[in-house]
């Protein structure tokens, strides 16, 4: 019981630390690619401390509650994800529960931003929800293929099975599903070429345009959780998780750096281009992976 309570406390803290580190690392790596020195790795921490001390302006109760809903949903998802051998809610749900709760993050931001009544927010939210619809289809097919192959909805059992049979990513039935997940990962993370919902040069950061002070700090924290969740889910499903948090973090770091390379070289899609891409190759690969998994298991 004591161990469970400790894990319930430590898991969100570790997820936040890793997510904030990735935010700082992304700015540093992108700066070096552009031949700049870039800010220090702890710049996101400095920014959040500064923002919490700044004056904040609320546009109403839903402006506050939507952001809290988004943040709470991300924290709950973290509790379902194994981080090494740490998984506080391993017996309380499965992959479909994780998929459902992941929808709370964009929904909460949409409810919060809608209270701001800013045209840029409306455009950003509509793009974000459309983009979510774009990657949720292949993501669902990927999860169905994994559950079919391992005959379980438990992510912990999926991780344990890979300890004996090897990574899902290099196995024949799930290679296509893993490739599909990697192709939609930039869209889930909201980085180029799928940063259409923020697009600072077009819509002034979209849903974030009315956030300031503690609201912007909380939105940054929520984004850090989303980074952790998206990459941790890929590592658990296709890279076998890890025996300890250190190895798990290294795997996450490799996946994140690869996505940053994609972010560095691709221009931004238009929203219709993004949906066309997501519903073409990733969805096709995920569907083929599901068909193969069903054929092998039947």
The counted number of beta strands is: 0
Strand-residue proportion: under 5%
Question: Measured on Cα atoms, how large is the radius of gyration?
Answer: 19 Å
> Structural class, please?
mainly alpha
What profile does the largest beta sheet have?
A: none
Poorly predicted tracts of residues: none
Shape: globular
Mean pLDDT over the residues: 90
Cα distance spanning the termini: 41 Å
Number of helices: 13
Order of helices and strands: HHHHHHHHHHHHH
In percent, how helical is the residue content? over 70%
Write a structural description.
The longest helix is centred in the first third of the chain and has 32 residues. α8 runs antiparallel to α10. The protein is 73% helix and 0% strand. It has one domain. The protein is mainly alpha-helical. It is built from 13 helices and no strands.
